[in-house]
Amino acid sequence: MTVPYINKKDNLILFDSVCKLCHGWSRFIIKYDRNHVFKLATVQSEQGQAILEHFDMPTSYFDTMLYVENNRAYEKSTAFLKVVNKLPYPFKLLQVFYLIPRFIRDWFYDRIALNRYKLFGKYDNCLLPTADHNNRFL
CA–CA separation, 6 vs 2, rounded Å? Predict the structure, then answer.
């Protein structure tokens, strides 16, 4: 079944736009994804909510980044590693963390994700992309 709002060949990163860490991650992607491999969407957007529902993910709280590739969703540390694999060197070198068992990677991921607002802060509302970023967002 096709994921709403995206094409099968799209590589989509869904992120929490009120989270300062997540917003910084999206800006990092825009800066280093020079080949425009990724599209971005916020989990709070209409498109993000529909995609979360499609994958039976929660739509009222967000504790993971979701990455969609070939109509398949990845979350937590696996999502992160799949994304960095498509970035240029030296970021690709982070693939070495695949050697760590997923349950350990995800435990560390969860510690950061569950405390991200305390550690990095939170915006009062969703930040909108700037005009030069419009073609990168759904």
Answer: 8
Place of tokens 């300062």: 20
Q: Give residue 99's identity as a one-letter amino acid code.
A: L
**Using one digit for the tens of pLDDT, what is the confidence trace for 40-69?**
999 989 999 999 999 999 998 888 889 999
Tell me 16's DSSP state.
-
For 19, 37, 56, 83, 111, the CA distances from 69, given in Å and listed in that order, are 23, 11, 16, 10, 25
30's enclosing H/E stretch is helix 20-32
Q: Which amino acid is at 16?
A: D
Spatial CA neighbour of 17 closest among 117, 109, 84, 105: 117
Report pTM.
0.86
d(CA 115, CA 56): 23
- The alpha carbon of 136 is separated from its chain's Cα centroid by a whole number of angstroms, namely 13
Residue 51 phi/psi, 5° resolution? -70, -40
Report which of 75, 28, 29, 27 is spatially closest to residue 51, judged by C-alpha positions.
75
* Strand ranges, E, within the chain: 11-15, 38-42, 66-69, 72-75
